């Protein structure tokens, strides 16, 4: 199945709507409905020139998170009738297309085409990959997670309608897949805001470092996120003290930020993503396209997946 960037033209028209956000405030966990966006002037990459605050004073942390959200294009504001409205979180759903290399458990590099569909309310992610190892036929997979549910699909939506594909429950994979969502730059900012006064800030070689716990199924995980001089999320490290969840010890580096939208939106995304898990490389991707226009994406949990978790 070819990877392609779809639905962007339709959702672009919805990007002109501002009324849905008029009563909202910046939402740390991405609770905004899809399809609505706020028209705003581009935000300055700001804060870096003046230097980051280095303490964990709540106001300093809040300012750094605000600056980072504006740099990414995650936070926007609008002036209606001459009145400036509160900033809002304008990203709930998005799609990303990339290509590069993934690695199997033995460390063998595998050519990979990568397509991720994701949402933050509820937290969910579908990763479609075509892996082609040397001398082998391509392998096409769909890996899905929503909240505490994880499953593999034979096709998108498999297992929801009788006779249309299958869904195979993989409950043990739920935490690892959910973590992929929250360590993306957008997830980092949302989760750090959601952690409230548990989010602390320090400095490392002049860079701001945010440290905070995740919650829910990932409550045992601590995130350490380093911001670069442009207020972009440059490095994300996750650690857990639970030996049974050692697969959640990850290190991801993000670089080459730009607006990768087919339709430009002023939402920045990393162009290069490199991730290690337990000290071993797991992926190295170059981002081709990002649809941050809140495409219509849903992640219903198949009945047999719910039943497997309920047992």
Which secondary structure elements does this structure contain, and how are they paired or packed?
Elements: H1 8-14, H2 58-72, E1 75-76, E2 79-80, E3 83-84, E4 88-89, E5 93-103, E6 109-120, E7 123-132, E8 139-146, E9 149-153, E10 167-169, H3 174-182, H4 185-194, E11 200-204, E12 207-213, E13 221-227, E14 233-240, E15 250-255, E16 272-277, E17 280-291, H5 303-310
Antiparallel strand pairs: 1-4, 2-3, 5-6, 5-17, 6-7, 7-8, 8-9, 9-10, 11-12, 12-13, 13-14, 14-15, 15-16, 16-17
Describe this structure in words.
The chain is of the alpha+beta class. It has 2 domains: 82 residues, no CATH class; 170 residues, Clam (outer membrane lipoprotein receptor (LolB), chain A), CATH 2.50.20. It is 16% helix and 35% strand. It is built from 5 helices and 17 strands. The strands form 3 sheets. The chain has a 13-stranded antiparallel sheet with strand order 10-9-8-7-6-5-17-16-15-14-13-12-11, with helices on both faces. Helix 2 runs antiparallel to helix 4.
Offer a quick outline of the entry:
The chain contains five helices and 17 strands. The chain is an alpha+beta fold and 311 residues long.
Beta strand %: 25-35%
Give a count of the beta strands, DSSP E runs of length 2 or more: 17
What integer value in Å does the Rg equal? 19 Å
How many domains? The number is 2
Largest sheet, strands/sense/barrel: 13 strands, antiparallel
- Please write the string of helix (H) and strand (E) elements: HHEEEEEEEEEEHHEEEEEEEH
Helix percentage range? 10-25%
**CATH class designation of the largest domain:** Mainly Beta
Shape, please?
globular
| N-to-C span | 35 Å
């Amino acid at each position: 199945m070819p990877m392609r960037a779809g639905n962007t033209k339709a959702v672009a028209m919805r990007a002109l709507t501002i009324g849905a956000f008029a009563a909202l405030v910046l939402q740390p966990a991405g609770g905004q409905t899809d399809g609505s966006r706020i028209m705003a002037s581009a935000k300055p990459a700001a804060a870096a020139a003046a230097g980051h605050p280095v303490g964990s004073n709540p106001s300093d942390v809040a300012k750094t998170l605000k600056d980072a959200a504006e740099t990414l294009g995650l936070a926007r504001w609008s002036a209606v009738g001459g009145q400036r409205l509160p900033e809002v979180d304008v990203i709930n759903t998005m799609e990303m297309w990339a290509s590069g290399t993934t690695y199997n458990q033995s460390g063998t590099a595998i050519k990979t085409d990568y397509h991720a569909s994701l949402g933050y309310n509820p937290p969910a992610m579908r990763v479609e990959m075509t892996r082609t190892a040397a001398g082998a036929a391509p392998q096409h997979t769909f890996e899905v997670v929503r909240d505490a549910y994880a499953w593999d699909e034979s096709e998108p939506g498999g297992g929801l309608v009788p006779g249309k594909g299958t869904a195979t429950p993989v409950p043990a994979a739920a935490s690892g897949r959910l973590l992929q969502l929250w360590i993306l730059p957008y997830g980092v900012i949302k989760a750090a805001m959601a952690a409230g006064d548990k989010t602390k800030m320090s400095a490392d070689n002049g860079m701001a470092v945010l440290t905070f716990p995740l919650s829910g199924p990932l409550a045992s995980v601590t995130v350490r996120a380093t911001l670069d001089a442009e207020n972009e999320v440059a490095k994300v490290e996750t650690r857990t003290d639970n030996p049974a969840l050692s697969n959640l010890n990850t290190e991801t580096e993000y670089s080459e930020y730009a607006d990768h939208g087919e339709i430009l939106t002023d939402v920045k995304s990393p162009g290069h993503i490199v991730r290690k898990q337990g000290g071993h490389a797991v992926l190295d991707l170059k981002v081709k396209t990002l649809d941050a226009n809140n495409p219509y994406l849903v992640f219903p949990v198949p009945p047999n997946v719910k039943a497997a978790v309920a047992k």
